[in-house]
Amino acid sequence: MITDPIGDFLTRVRNASMAKHKVVEVPASNMRKAITKILFDQGYILNYKFEDKGPRGTIKIALKYNKDTKEPVIKELQRVSRPGLRKYAGTQEIPRILNGLGIAILSTSKGVMIDKEARRNNTGGEVLCYVY
């Protein structure tokens, strides 16, 4: 049993990217699907595919690398809020990652979104992770 499913998801993506894998497969959940969609929309991953095999299904994620240096596009995936210590931020306290070059993923009452979108919608929430 996994006590921190989002932390497990981030660790799988981080390890696969450091090992230069092309594809990583993770168990699916609604939260993981939302985070994957955000990573794709922001250009951190190449592509993704939801598969309905097994009881929950899986997510296949194609990782993205720089063409010249072969370095992973995702430099850092950092878990912020965890099951033992939740971190919440109001609209005014939403962090800016690397002066706007990175993103913070938040779980709000209006769904999972990035920090810029949360500021635009004037909503705060739980800060799930930082990506840059």
Label this structure with key terms.
132 residues, alpha+beta, five-stranded antiparallel β-sheet, three-stranded antiparallel β-sheet, 3 helices, 8 strands, 25% helix, globular
In words, what does this structure look like?
The structure is a single chain. This protein is α+β, with helices and mostly antiparallel strands and 132 residues long. Helices cover 25% and strands 30% of the residues. Strands 4, 5, 6, 7 and 8 form a five-stranded antiparallel β-sheet that branches. The longest helix is centred in the first third of the chain and has 14 residues, at 5-18. The chain is globular, with a radius of gyration of 15 Å. The relative contact order is 0.18. The model has no long low-confidence stretch (mean pLDDT 96).
How would you briefly describe this protein structure?
The protein is of the alpha+beta class and 132 residues long.
Question: What is the tally of beta strands?
Answer: 8
Q: Report helical residue fraction.
A: 25-40%
Helix-strand topology string? HEHEEEEEEHE
Through-space gap between termini: 29 Å
- Radius of gyration over all CA atoms, rounded: 15 Å
Mean of residue pLDDT values: 96
Describe the global form.
Answer: globular
Beta-strand percent range: 25-35%
The major beta sheet can be summarized as: 5 strands, antiparallel
Structural class: alpha+beta
Q: What is the helix tally? A: 3
Spans of at least 5 consecutive residues with low confidence:
none
